[in-house]
Amino acid sequence: MRFDERVAAALSWTHALIDLDALAGNIAALLACLPPGAGLMAVAKANAYGHGLVPCARAALEAGATHLAVARIEEGLLLRKSGITAPILVLGPSNSFLVRHAVANGIALAVGSSESVQAIAACLGDGLGPASLHLKIDSGMHRYGVQPDDAPGLARAIAQDSRLALEGLFTHFATADAADDQFLREQVRRFTAVRRELAHAGINPPLVHLANSPATLRRVPHWPDLRLPGEVSLVRTGVAMYGLSPSADVPVSREFQPVMTLKTRLARVFTIAPGEGVSYGLTYVASERVRCATLPLGYGDGLARRLSNRGWAVIHGASCPIRGRVSMDQTVVEIGDLDAAEGDEAIVIGDGRDGAMTASQAAALYGTINYEVVTAVPERVPRVYLRDGRPAAILDLIGFAGPDSEPARATADLSPNAAG
Fold first, then answer.
1. Average pLDDT, the chain
2. Is 371 a catalytic residue?
3. Residue 357 annotated as lining a ligand binding site
4. Which residues face 385 on adjacent strands?
């Protein structure tokens, strides 16, 4: 299929519009929050929070990000396979079976224990290396990372091993998105104590990063009483990059715009009689004649089943409530007296200005966070990437393509033996 055919097919059914201009604007707004000399590490894990890993990573770099972060080595390898050469960090524990591939492709790895360091070192040899490591300090989140008291010894061990290179030092905040900043300040205190002890020992990793999206929006690296200015070389921003608020306590400003809009088309318009129900379990039964429409999307497309009888879609500017259970592939909404027909557009998740559910509103309806709402949109939903309001690329199950490209995935050899 030609590019224009694939785009037309996507827009005629369930699809996600990804506004790369909005993403660039969000990056610009984040860059304005940074301390002097600091760079931005764009977090693109989990398929760029559901927005599409490679296209969003490229757009973030074009907009001014200097580094990329992922959660799995495979994500980093896909970025390299797609021709991206920017620095990449795997934020979490590493699969030892893939360490050699990561090192061969210049992907930095996070370590949080002596065991993780030893496991990576054991994978090296035959001229491969050194492995670039970022030592993660567990400053209080207690998920992954080395305890502060053990960090200096582990940092020295890394520095003394010729197979390894200590490129970075970082931590992660547990409560940066909360109104109360007491524990946030305690985490900063613990981290900076380790940072200074390492510096006293002559160990100065070139990359130091601790601020996530909410901490960046709150300008934590600027807080003078935390003695951070001049010490932070990077911030790591994820959810705000996609135009979403980290929490109700730390909302994004009006400069930020949601990047994703989830849309579909009406597949059927029909009327049910009083006493008749819709969808599995007949959890909605009409008390009068009701006009409905079937949307060809469901929880298999990221619309949570917990939105059954709760959420809504916008059709011709009107809010149309979901009736009955959201099923895997189809959802029914009530359309009332709308002049609607099969093929008409329905907005399922939007920016709120048109009355559509925002990701945050959908999250509030079923007790989750906006991160999960957008990340849940699976690969079977085609992403159409917009520049200046026009389709510039598409990512669907066939692959990624632009107007002048073939619909094939990159095929670069990423094996350790193929590296330099």
1. 95
2. no
3. no
4. 18, 393
